[in-house]
């Protein structure tokens, strides 16, 4: 996202000013500056080494905070050790070099670096403030477990809470996530990883103040570095998966302009249904891939048929109806897609057995395929095409409910209705390549009967 809304820029500026205010007392403090410098260099070095290109990095306006587990996308033990060892203003300073020098893939890079630096500085300042207010300084010098865990635990909770508040704000302003859903789940997802890093930071702080000194404290970083390196490898693999998906989707979009942006929206609607059904995060991610790639088989369909004006002949329709099988063959060897492959093959099946390619009935249709079928039909009805205008969401849902039980799984339709009632529908904005000039005969049921996202005969 190269362009950040004006209100998001104002928000980043306000957080930046808050970070400067947190560090304002520094000139009047007597702190061990060599400790501040050493921790800042350690943090910057760990960030540069452990974070792969294309991962969260410096963080920024315009990203989705739900895509990266906060607290594991950055190397926190050093920052939290600083919060437990140093006065709040000095602790906030530790985060700046690493955040300002971090790799940033998306533009505007300077704004993203400033945002991440300001966000971390404010969070670490608040963490140190709470820790010291609860007697954490004495607990680090002369630790008495488990009592020393109380101020540290309070500091970790504060850190998670501040990051959650700030992240939710940037989601609402930069990504235009609805306010009622911007903060949903952020705190819960960040707490466990940040708590692990907090324990490592506490160990560093205790050893630092012990007779063994800073050298022993630095040994704590070794296992944490290894775990972060493993996490970085996971992100590299995930980035490779995303690149594969993106290339396939772009190829389909280029070949069939009617469905430009359709794949991403089907993936988004599929995720909403999956979360409403209570699927775990791993299955939700695979289902998102299924929604995005459901029409990849169109690459095997002649372009002249996909772009044909007017009704399709029965022979042409039979050719186009082969696209689920083409798609399944194309992705057969992509192991990480898992259950998504069955959704690509069966997303045009119907509960009453009148679908294709195999005429499966009821529960014979894989769960993922039943989800994608509903998401696909919903987006088809609510998107503007060259031959008709987009339908209102309520009208589309009414039609889905009317066809549930025969064409669609009622459970999937109900999940989509509940999800849209809770969050609304905010699909990604895509270029509208065709003027909205619907024919008078276009109907909602006609949209459902079309098999591949274009006019049916």
From TrEMBL:
The keyword Metal-binding does not apply. Residues 434-457 are annotated as: Disordered. The chain crosses the membrane at residues 6-26, 75-102, 114-134, 154-174, 186-208, 214-232. GO terms for molecular function: hydrolase activity. Residues 259-381 form the HD domain. Its EC number is 3.1.4.-. SMART domains: HDc. Coiled coil: none annotated. InterPro entries: Cyclic_di-GMP/3'3'-cGAMP_PDE, HD/PDEase_dom, HD_domain, HD_GYP_dom, HDIG_dom. PROSITE patterns: HD (PS51831), HD_GYP (PS51832). Keywords: Hydrolase, Membrane, Transmembrane, Transmembrane helix. Residues 237-432 form the HD-GYP domain. SUPFAM superfamilies: HD-domain/PDEase-like (SSF109604). This is HD-GYP domain-containing protein. It comes from Streptomyces lutosisoli.
